[in-house]
Amino acid sequence: IMRSLVPFSHQQINGGIGPVKALEKSPSLSIEEAISKLPKQVVTEAFLRDITAALPAAGSQIKMDGESRLCHIFGKNYRDLWRARKGMFERAPDAVVLPQSHEDCVKIMKAAVEHDVILIPFGGGTNVTGGIEASPFETRRMIISLDMRRMTRMLSIDKVSRIAVFEAGVLGPDLDEAIGRHGFLFGHDPDSYIHSTLGGWIASRSSGALSNKYGDIEQMVLSLKVVTPTGVVETPLTSRPCGPDMNAMFIGSEGHFGIITECVIKIEPIPESRHYEGWFFPDFVSGYEAFYKCTRLGIHPTAMRLYDEDDTKMSMALKTDGPAIAGLIGKGVKFYMANVKGWDLEQVCLCIVGHEGPKKQVAFDRSKTAAVFHEFGGMCVGAGAGNNWQEKKYDLPFVRDFALAHKMWADVFETSVIYSEAISCWRAVKKAVRDVWKEEGKKGWIGCHIAHQYRFGCCLYFTYAGQQFDENDLEVFLKVKKRATEAMLQHRGNLSHHHGIGYEHVPWMERYLGTPGMELLLQFKKSVDPQDICNPHKLLPVQKIAGESAEETAARRKKNMMFFHCGLPNKAKL
C-alpha cells in the first residue's frame, strides 16, 4: 500500500489548499458502452476473402468484433486514455488480423497492396506517442490492426556468436525466458517490458533501464526481416555493416515502411553478480556533476538514475509500506542529512545505481563509482533503495492509470540532450510547463530524472501530472506538451529518446530533421510504399503534391496532422 500517495497528490498536484480529501472517481464507460460508440466499419470484402483463403487458421486469425477493435484502438498516453474513458473514437481499426508467421505477413501485405487496405502493426499496445492509432483522415480505406503477438518463437540460437533469432511478436519476459534456459539474457528493460514486444522496441527505437551496459535497441539488433509493399527486405547479418546501414532505415520507423517480422539480436551471459543501491545528493546539479564525471572517466554502471527534487518526492510517495523499523531508519537518515550534513531536505535528490557482471568486477566498479559520488557530496543509503527500485520499476504505468481513475492525470515525455545543454534544458522545460499552468489558472506537478548516459549526453525523462477539471483538460495538456517540446528543441534536445515519434511529434519533424532530410525520408517512403498503406499519418507529414507552393504544402500538412485533431474540438487552438 502506498499510503503517501494521497497526501503527495494533495500537496504537489492540488497545491496543498484545504484539507486532504478522499479521492474521487473519474467518470468512465463500460466496455459495452464503449463498443456502442465505435465508428462504423469500412469493409473491403475482396481483401477479407483473399486473406481468409490464404491464412492457415483464418477463423481465429481474423477478428471483426467490437471488443477486438476497441482493444486495438489506442496506445497508452493520456490523450489515448482520456478519449477511451469518454468514448471519443474518431476512427478505429475495422478488423484485427493476427499473423502466425513471416509467411502470413507476406500474404497479408500482398492482399493489402492489391486492395488498397491500410496495415498498422500492433505489438503490446504500450506506445505513448499515437503510433498504433488509426488515422481519422482515412475514411475511405479499410484499416487493419496487425496484431503480432502470435509470432513469438525463438527460431535459432548461436551460443558461440551469442546471437539469437526471434519472431517480432515475442514479449519481453518470454524472450528472456527462452534464452535464459541457455544461460543468456537480452538486457533490454523498459518500463513496458512485461507487456511490450521485440518488434515494438525496434520500431520505436526503444531503450531500457540497463542501456549503459547492454546498449539501446539499435546496438542490440544485428539483422531484420521486413515485409514492405514492394518486397521483403532482409538486412545483412554481420558483425559490422559496410556501406549504408539498412537496419537504420527500419529501426525507429514505426511500421511506416513495412512490417518487421523476424529479428537477429545479440544476447549476453547472465551476470554472476547484481548489486543495486541508493544514494542521496544534496541537490540535482551536484548529482548531475557526479554522473558527468563518472562518464568522463569511463566509469559506466549498468544503471545510473538521478531523480530531481520533485521526482524524488514522488519516488518517496510511491514507496510501499514497510516494517516500523524501516520508518525509523528513514527518519534517522533525514535527521542526519538535515542536522549533520546541513542539507535542505526540499532539494535532496535520490540516485539509484546498479552494477552487473563478475563479482570482482562489480566490487571494483562500485568502489570507483562511490569515490566519485563522495567527491560531490553523495551519501549511500544501501541496497534497500536499490531493491525497492527493482521491485517498483514497472509500476509507473499503473500509477498513471490510478491517477486517471481518480480525477487526476499523469503522463511522460523525454529527450536526449548533449551535456553542455542538459541542466539548462532541465530548467527550461520545467519552467515552460509551469508557465502554461499559471497562464491557464491550473495547478500541477512535474519531475525529471536523468538516465541513459552517453559519451556526449544523456536522457532527461519528465513525468508530469495535473487535476482533471472539464472538457478543456486535453487542450491544456497539449499546450503543456507543445511548450515543453519547444523548450527541448531550443536546447538541442531531440523529440524523443525512446518513446518514438508516432503522430505526437510529427509537427516538429521538419524542424528536427531539416527540410532536405525530411524530404529524403518522404522519397524513401514513396519508393517503398507508393500507396501509403503502411501506418499512414505517423512519423512523417503527408507527401508534397506536385505544383504546390511551400506555403500550400505547409498548410495542408498541418491540416492533416493528427496532433491537432485527435480528441480536440474544432475551436481548440494549439
Short description:
The protein has 574 residues and is of the alpha+beta class. 40% of the residues lie in helices and 18% in strands.
The N- to C-terminal Cα distance equals 39 Å
- How many H/I helical runs? 23
| Main sheet specs | 7 strands, antiparallel
**Spans of 5+ residues with little confidence (pLDDT < 50)?**
none
Number of strands: 18
Using the alpha-carbon principal axes, give the shape: globular
Structural class: alpha+beta
Mean pLDDT: 94
Strand content: 15-25%
Spatial strand order of the main sheet: 15-12-14-13-17-18-16
Task: Report the radius of gyration as a whole number of Å.
Answer: 24 Å
Percent of residues in helices comes to 40-55%
